[in-house]
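Researcher: Sequence recovery benchmark, item below. Answer with residues only.
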């Protein structure tokens, strides 16, 4: 009897080792513009708000905006300090993200005599993370093990900030002692290092005349393997307030133009419009590396005046690659491949000029990246979606790059 079972579809990306970068995600097949390459759920979420948050407008579990006090419910242990968007969300939280220990720990950290209240908001948010992480060790040891497996060199357990945070939690709200992973300054240091390199921000709703800030942070284990490029070929979307079901905190990564098989998929870790000096500073301070992508190689030789032209300030995420020279056969082949993927090589040698024109949102104060909507039946879409403001616009032509697949 023949096997008529249908083989499972091949995932669009796979893990690979890239020299000089380590682990990365590369395409397993040619991809169309707008194609979804990853949908990932967080193994851990925590609020980005200060401990004494007097403007509590997000659900403490799913972080949706609470639009109506009619359906809003509070925590049975800490009352109005932790609010939930509906009874179902609260029920799930009480057995996962907002256990009785989490509630007690956050309540004690908010008390008037808590030394954390005199520290900056970043320190308070790190305390929230450690509480969430040690809670994860109890409620989901497997996910906690996944967290420990992510990239991130350990911060010294003798680091002043680490010692302070660990001592505060140890004295005020020590975690339950039935976790198999224990509780120590060295483990706290490891956890803080994982958080520093792997947390994604879930942003507040876009407002044109207001600086956009983070409402919550999440650790997404598969998405954490995307490397950075200052001209990315993919961007991430989140739909925290617009998705009705429990997957509203998932992030979705879509490619912004066609890609061949074997190409690394990169995101930008911040808005693509930032200046070279600012990008390098943030990458060094936040991630510990200097970027030498094609765009940075060009802009490293710019004067201060040139660097300031055409680049503003903003907030977001993106990428893509483009050649620098036209001298060798290899470079000419690379040029052809770049054009096939939807990025025309600029005559002036600046690989990002076309990117800004085609893939950056032109809405005031947005600085988002545009990606086509997912293709329907392999037909590319001409509708571009901004991953910051959510605006939909029509492109002049579909990002199909058909010649690449001939």
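Model:
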């Amino acid at each position: 009897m023949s096997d008529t079972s249908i083989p499972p579809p091949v995932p669009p990306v796979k893990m690979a080792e890239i020299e000089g970068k380590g682990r990365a995600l590369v395409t397993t097949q040619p991809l169309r513009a707008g194609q979804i390459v990853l949908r990932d759920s967080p193994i851990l979420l925590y609020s980005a708000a200060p401990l004494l948050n007097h403007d509590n407008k997000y659900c403490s579990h799913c972080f949706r905006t609470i639009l109506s006090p009619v359906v809003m419910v509070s925590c049975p242990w800490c009352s109005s300090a932790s609010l939930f968007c509906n009874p179902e969300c609260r029920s799930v939280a009480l057995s996962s993200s907002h256990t009785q220990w989490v509630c007690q720990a956050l309540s004690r950290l908010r008390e008037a005599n808590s030394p954390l209240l005199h520290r900056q908001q970043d320190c308070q948010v790190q305390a929230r993370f450690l509480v969430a992480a040690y809670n994860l060790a109890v409620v989901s040891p497997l996910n906690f093990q996944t967290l420990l497996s992510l990239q991130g060199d350990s911060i010294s357990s003798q680091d002043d900030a680490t010692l302070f945070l660990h001592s505060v939690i140890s004295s005020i709200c020590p975690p339950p002692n039935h976790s198999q992973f224990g509780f120590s300054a060295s483990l706290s240091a490891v956890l803080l290092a994982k958080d520093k390199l792997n947390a994604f921000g879930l942003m507040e709703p876009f407002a044109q005349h207001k600086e956009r800030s983070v409402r919550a942070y999440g650790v997404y284990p598969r998405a954490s393997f995307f490397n950075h490029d200052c001209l990315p070929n993919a961007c991430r979307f989140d739909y925290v307030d617009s998705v009705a079901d429990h997957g509203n905190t998932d992030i979705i990564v879509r490619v912004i133009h066609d890609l061949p098989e074997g190409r690394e998929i990169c995101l930008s870790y911040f808005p693509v419009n930032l200046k070279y000096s600012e990008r390098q500073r943030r990458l060094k301070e936040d991630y510990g590396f200097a970027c030498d992508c094609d765009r940075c190689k060009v802009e490293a030789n710019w004067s201060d005046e040139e660097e300031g032209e055409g680049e503003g300030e903003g907030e977001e995420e993106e990428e893509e690659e483009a050649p620098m020279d036209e001298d060798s056969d290899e470079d000419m082949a690379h040029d052809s491949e770049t054009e096939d993927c939807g990025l025309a090589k600029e005559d002036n040698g600046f690989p990002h000029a076309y990117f800004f024109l085609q893939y950056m949102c032109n809405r005031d104060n947005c600085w988002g990246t545009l990606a086509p909507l997912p293709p329907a039946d392999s037909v590319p879409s001409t509708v571009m979606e901004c991953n910051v403001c959510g605006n939909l616009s029509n492109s002049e032509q579909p990002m199909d790059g058909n010649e690449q697949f001939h």
